[in-house]
Design goal:
seven-stranded antiparallel beta sheet, globular
């Protein structure tokens, strides 16, 4: 869910990712990654980001600070906004916003330590979103 007001320079964002939607294109690898030691999707079916603060530079949204919850652990996270654009969709005629955001996390801080250091601890989370105005 996204609420965003450029004029007031406020907003809120909640992103919920179904952890079982993980798809690397390899069923055997997916089964391992969905299991214990990795995403443990049976115990932790979702990954959630909830915003706490939207950061603006003049009228441009630059970043969103919030909390990421994964594997039962919650850590602060900052999403840098590469771009955000709002306007009338020419097909649906609905007001729509699209955005591209990314942030870095250390998977070990969430308890995911499998295969360290052979598989990197630093992970880039990228969120691309489109949202239609409800009213």
């Amino acid at each position: 869910m996204l609420e965003f007001d450029v004029e007031q320079q406020t907003g809120s964002l909640e992103v919920i990712i179904d952890a079982s939607s993980l798809d690397t294109g390899n069923a055997e690898r997916d089964a391992v990654l969905k299991g214990t030691g990795w995403f443990d999707v049976r115990r932790y079916p979702s990954i959630t980001f909830r915003s706490q603060r939207f950061l603006f530079e003049q009228d441009r949204l630059m970043a969103i600070e919030g909390k990421l919850t994964m594997l039962g652990a919650t850590q602060p996270m900052r999403l840098e906004i590469a771009w955000i654009k709002c306007g009338s969709n020419p097909v649906s005629r609905k007001w729509r916003c699209g955005a591209d955001a990314s942030g870095m996390l250390k998977r070990s801080r969430f308890g995911m330590r499998s295969a360290l250091p052979f598989i990197a601890d630093d992970v880039r989370l990228r969120i691309r979103v489109e949202a239609d105005r409800e009213n």
